Predict the structure.
Amino acid sequence: MKPAGVFGGTFDPIHYGHLRSAFEMMQALDFEEVRFIPCGDPPHRGVTFASAEQRMRLVELAVSRQRGFRADDRELRREGPSWTIDTLLELREEFPDRSLGLIIGMDAFLGLPSWHRWEEILSQGHIIVAHRPGWKAPDIGVLGELIAEHGTHRIDDLHVETHGRVHIHAVTQLEIASTEIRELVAAGRDPRFLMPDAVRHEILNTGLYRGE
Ligand code: ATP
């Protein structure tokens, strides 16, 4: 079975920036699927604007028409803070022999050492870093060492091994941010062309983000 990508985020709301980079990764790395996993209780963010159920619904609408894209609600079903390591441990139990690739942006990667039990992540899956232009991969410090020790340019390695590699991959950067979308909707403007129409309709029809 080909690898599964694991793409977590607050997705408050999901937009084409997320979808395009996940799609490019799935194609370029020849992954079978990408699982979008909205965090139930984001430990790093404190508050979300839409509820976990609303963010999940938007993710479901966003991925429903793309083969290989899946909405995964496991972090909503779990009690307590949504730690990535717990999500990977759960997936690993479900798929003992499958390659798993945790997809994160370079900005998120730079904050990795502050994640709960981050050093265990590579024992469950690979880390796939979406390189956004303007971000340089660290070559010193703990992340520099991590790349020196576990980094690979070879996509084959991500298929042959089930975990333990760091792969940095450039994706087209769409300068879209959830924060700006929320501000735009709160100001009564239309988020058209920033996200799939199904997501946009759901936001506009339910009045989500209007009260911010
Ligand atoms: P906010 O604007 O509220 O901070 P965000 O979109 O940056 O939202 P998340 O939804 O948590 O935040 O992002 C989930 C993942 O998607 C992260 O790994 C982040 O690096 C990545 N990401 C966010 N925006 C983009 C974008 N425009 N293009 C590619 N990847 C993105």
About this structure: Residues 9-12, 17-18, 21, 104-105, 107-108, 130, 173-174, 176-179 surround adenosine-5'-triphosphate (CB under 6 Å).
